[in-house]
Amino acid sequence: MSEARSRHPTDLLIRALVARRRQATAAEVTRIVERMATAPFESRARRVPLPERGARYLGYILGARSDSLTYHLVKRVALEEQWADGTTAAQYLEDLRRAIRSPSAQLVVFARRGGCLAATITPLEDAVPVERWGPQVQPLIMTVFSADRGIIISGYGISSLAEAHLPEDAQWLA
Amino acid sequence: MARVARILTAKERIDPYLDYLFAEWGAVPEVAAEWNEWEDHEQLDFVVEWPIKEDRLHQLQQWAREGLFTPDQQARYERLLALIAQHRPTLEQLLRD
Q: Can you tell me the ipTM of this complex?
């Protein structure tokens, strides 16, 4: 990890749950969900792989680098058609936050690439308003939160729980 | 009243899924060539988002078993499987923790 890790108490809690493989209490689950749902999206610019450069959406044109939220929006709407044409970055993020907060969301924590992540998996209809379903929408919405940096790093649709491809030692909290 | 997009059926998703997977798998060598220059957050994002590609591949495999492909789609699908077989070892290295 090349930069200072988050010292937010809930991020520390998630990291402790992963490290000690301890089950969370109901109150801790509530804290984690609230932390994830109020976290900002990754703000750093990122490189755009060559085949995706030139993709256009809502006035954005992906170049060699893009801010992360715009990159994910263009992928979700223009390249994958998971969200409907016209969906804005604010609406995409709003849907991810709704997915995280949904009572039907399943919460899981796990380690990946030396870092700690928390994720929710939520039925589509509880996360995304029907007018924002794209032509290739998927039945579940997965959101991914970095407990190292205290940010949402991704959100996308999957066809089943198995397609989340979680590590075998992932811990389901709710 | 908000306009609602028409949700594609399985048969209608075959061509866009093939297009998408050819682009994503075709980019693997370029990603691998640059991988060591990628920052941590870029690598993590690639790893976290890769399940989208496997998911679409699994859906195509299911539809292949169900016989939903046209002959042209079957031929493209077989070319895709060959491309995946070629790049899978490289991809596995990128995904490794």
A: 0.93
For residue A44, which residues of chain B lie inside 8 Å, CB to CB? 39, 41
The number of helices, as runs of H, and strands, as runs of E, in chain A is: 5, 9
- Which of A50, A80, A157 lies closest to B30 in CB terms? A50
Instruction: Return the percentage of chain A with pLDDT > 90, whole number.
Output: 92
With an 8 Å Cβ cutoff, are A153 and B41 in contact?
yes
Record the pTM: 0.95
A138 CB-near residues (< 8 Å, 6+ apart): A82, A124, A156, A157, A158, A159, B55
Spatial distance between the Cα atoms of B65 and A65, rounded to a whole number of angstroms: 40
The per-residue pLDDT for A94 is: 98
Residue A114: pLDDT band with limits 50, 70, 90: confident
Q: Supply the pLDDT for residue A4.
A: 82
Count A/B contacts: CB-CB distance under 8 Å.
98
Beta bridge pairs of residue A56 = A61
d(CA B89, CA B85) in angstroms, rounded, equals 8
- Whether A123 contacts chain B with CB within 8 A: no
**Residue B75 to residue B53: CA distance in whole angstroms:** 19
